[in-house]
Amino acid sequence: MEKTRSILRIDASMRQSGSVTRGLTDRVIARLEAAEGGASVAVRDLAEPLPFVTERWIGANFADPEARTGEQRDALALSDSLIAELKAADTLVIGLPIYNFGVPAAFKAWFDLVARARVTFRYTETGPVGLLEGKRAIVIVASGGTEVDGPIDFATAWLRHALGFIGIRDVEIVPVGRQMVVGEAALAAAAAQVDALAA
User: Fold this and answer.
1) What is the pTM assigned to this prediction?
2) Longest CA pairwise span in the chain (Å)
3) Measuring CA to CA, which residue among 115, 116, 96, 118 is closest to residue 107?
4) How far apart are CA 98 and CA 153, in angstroms?
5) What is the pLDDT of residues 149-171, one digit of tens each?
6) How far apart are CA 195 and CA 197, in angstroms?
7) Residue 159, CB half-sphere, CA atoms under 13 Å: how many?
8) Element (H, E) at 19
């Protein structure tokens, strides 16, 4: 019997209602659950803010893991928990609005807490190697006026690189760009792509 799919849903929209990305991540997960006959879904809602990296955190992170003090372990406890969520997931479903041409600060804060040398990536003589291989990411990227993957979209390419840096290279982007320009057509195209991806 195959293992039940384990999904980590990450919502980066600050909108709790009326969010295009939240609506489409709902749709992705519903399709995945239907295809799999159920799934285990963990939710990380970044509208509940995460702390930014601090000097205390950096000191704890770079300390020898075997020699960390209780205070240093406490400083890394949230990061450890976020990484455990990430490691447990087979599939990431990310709702990512473009804010002012880049990723929301809340999403960058999340990534800063999960990108840790010797834990989610390691350095080698030939460069860094991601340690979270074998995962799939489906990312809803939404914007009001910016063309997704266009010349002023600094979110999507960064996201692909960042996920690849920790070993997640199977990344599927569902664009919902320029909604203020093209209107409902962007949402309709994205919904159709979601249905095809999940299938």
Assistant:
1) 0.93
2) 56
3) 96
4) 8
5) 999 999 999 999 999 999 999 99
6) 6
7) 31
8) none
Give the helix, strand, coil percentages of the chain, each rounded to 5: 45, 25, 35
Q: Residue 88's closest CA among 177, 4, 13?
A: 4
User: Residue 1: what residue type?
Assistant: M
Tokens 């949230």 correspond to what residue?
A: 78
Give CA–CA dist 125/109, Å, rounded: 28
Q: Please state, as a whole number, how many other Cβ atoms lie within 10 Å of the Cβ of residue 119.
A: 18
Encoded tokens for 16: 């709790």
What type of residue sits at position 198? A
Which tops the pLDDT comparison, 89 or 37? 89
Count of residues in the chain = 199
Residue with tokens 């006959």: 37
CA-CA distance, 60 to 70, in Å (whole number)?
Answer: 10
Stretch (H or E) spanning 97:
strand 91-97
Cα–Cα distance measured from residue 88 to residue 31, given in angstroms and rounded to the nearest whole number: 20
**Phi and psi, residue 165, nearest 5°:** -60, -35
Q: pLDDT, tens digit, for every residue of 59-103? A: 999 999 999 999 999 999 999 999 999 999 999 999 999 999 999
Return all residues near 49 (Cβ < 8 A) that are at least 6 apart: 106, 109
